[in-house]
Every structure is written in structure tokens, then in C-alpha cells.
Specification:
The chain is an alpha/beta fold. The protein folds into 2 domains: 139 residues, Rossmann fold; 73 residues, Putative phosphatase, domain 2 (DNA polymerase, domain 1), CATH 1.10.150.240. The protein contains 9 helices and 6 strands; from the N terminus they run E-H-H-H-H-H-E-H-E-H-E-H-E-E-H. Strands 3-2-1-4-5-6 form a 6-stranded parallel sheet, sandwiched between helices. Helix 6 links the parallel strand 2 and strand 3. Helix 1 packs across helix 2 and helix 2 packs across helix 3. The longest helix has 22 residues. The termini are close together.
Length: 221
């Protein structure tokens, strides 16, 4: 049986840790901690805006999270340096398994789309530069609904966008909260466990598959 597969982008197809090479000349020894906190605050700000009904797109969340992180670590950067970092968040490197995995999944007859909290144009540009976009049918963005994952409405919107029932639509993500959000509304879901140190949230809602990368996903779906 073939399915529609919606791939999370940040952390699943492209690696946010790639920001470290842009941060290191600016923040030095703080680089790793800075990158982690910035990423955590981006996700937190998207969650909070979704819950509050005060939508601003993911780029705004990225910019505000950077301002918080700069204040937390007491780092001063010029406005030009800040905007350059925000821009580089749309130029992240692709994980090495992604293109091969997508090729295998497409050869199996699955319908593949990007499914992201990011605005569609930004995600298209990011995936195009990373060489991933040609392997996908389209980009499905939560920006169309003006809210964020893990709102139930966005996962239903994914299934509707690919014209499949929930039971034939997969969410593929490295983020446990994303997997749980998809499973909660009836989608199938695969957790891409890109690090052995990652722990899945103990909510009693489990992924249908746990794999290390997209090549392994193609072998098991």
C-alpha cells in the first residue's frame, strides 16, 4: 500500500545545528549552547502564539527567539549581524540520508510533501537550496491556517491537502511533540530518532515507526 507522507522540515530534513558555523565567529565558546537555546525558544514561541491566537509567522518567531537568546547570554550583535543570522536559518544543510531516502520512498509510489511551521515561500527556498525540493510534490505550510503545529487543525489540513484519509497519511518528524500531535488526530506517524540520546515523551501515545533516518524509513514503511 502506498501513502501520503508529510515531512517535518527543521530537524527532520535539514539540520538546525548547521547554524553553529555562522554563530561561532560571533559568539565563540557560547556557540553550542546558544544554538540549542535559540532553537528551543523558536519552538516555544510558535507554541505560545498558537495557543494565544496571536499568530506571527515562523520567521518572526525566529527573530524574537534570537533577541531572547542574545539577552540571555548577554551578547551584543549589530542589527545587520542579527538579520544575517535570521537569513541563514533559511539556508540550513540537509541531513546526508534525506535525498537517498526520499528517492527510495518515491520509487515505492508514496506521495511526498514537506509539512512545516515555516511560511511556504521560505520553505521552498530553503529546500530548493538544499537540493530537496525536486524530490517532493509540494510544500504544505501551517501559514495557510495562521497557527502552528501541534494544533489538531494543521494535521487534518495536511491530510486534506494531499487528498487522503487520515489513516493513509503519515507525519514523519524528528520532533516527538509533532509525532504525538499527528497521532492524536488519527494520522500515522514515524519518529526519526536522529540521536541515541533522544527520549520520546511518555504520554502513552506511540509512533507507528521509530527509525534512525529516511533510508531506514523507506525499508520499513
Amino acid at each position: 500500500m502506498t501513502y501520503a507522507l508529510g515531512f517535518d522540515v527543521y530537524g527532520t530534513l535539514v539540520d538546525p545545528a548547521g547554524m553553529q558555523r555562522h554563530l561561532r565567529p560571533l559568539v565563540g565558546d557560547l556557540t553550542e549552547r546558544f544554538a540549542v537555546l535559540w532553537r528551543e525558544k523558536i519552538i516555544e514561541y510558535a507554541f505560545r502564539r498558537g495557543l494565544m491566537g496571536k499568530y506571527e509567522n515562523y520567521t518572526v518567531c525566529t527573530r524574537h527567539a534570537l533577541l531572547y537568546t542574545l539577552q540571555f547570554f548577554k551578547v551584543e550583535l549589530s542589527s545587520h549581524e542579527q538579520e544575517s543570522l535570521v537569513a541563514e536559518y533559511q539556508n540550513l544543510p540537509v541531513f546526508v540520508d534525506v535525498v537517498n531516502g526520499l528517492r527510495r520512498l518515491k520509487a515505492q509510489g508514496h506521495y511526498l510533501v514537506a509539512f512545516s511551521n515555516g511560511p511556504e515561500l521560505a520553505i521552498r527556498n530553503l529546500l530548493s537550496r538544499a537540493g530537496v525540493l525536486p524530490h517532493l510534490e509540494c510544500v504544505v505550510s501551517v501559514d495557510d491556517l495562521r497557527t502552528f503545529k501541534p494544533s489538531p487543525t494543521v494535521y487534518v489540513y495536511l491530510a486534506r491537502s494531499v487528498n487522503r484519509p487520515l489513516s493513509e497519511t503519515w507525519l514523519v518528524s524528528s520532533n516527538a511533540w509533532d509525532v504525538i500531535g499527528a497521532k492524536a488526530v488519527g494520522l500515522k506517524a514515524a519518529w526519526i530518532k536522529r540521536s541515541s540520546e533522544r527520549v520520546f515523551d511518555p504520554w502513552g501515545i506511540e509512533p507507528d515507526l521509530i527509525v534512525q533516518d529516511l533510508v531506514e524509513l523507506a525499508a520499513h514503511i
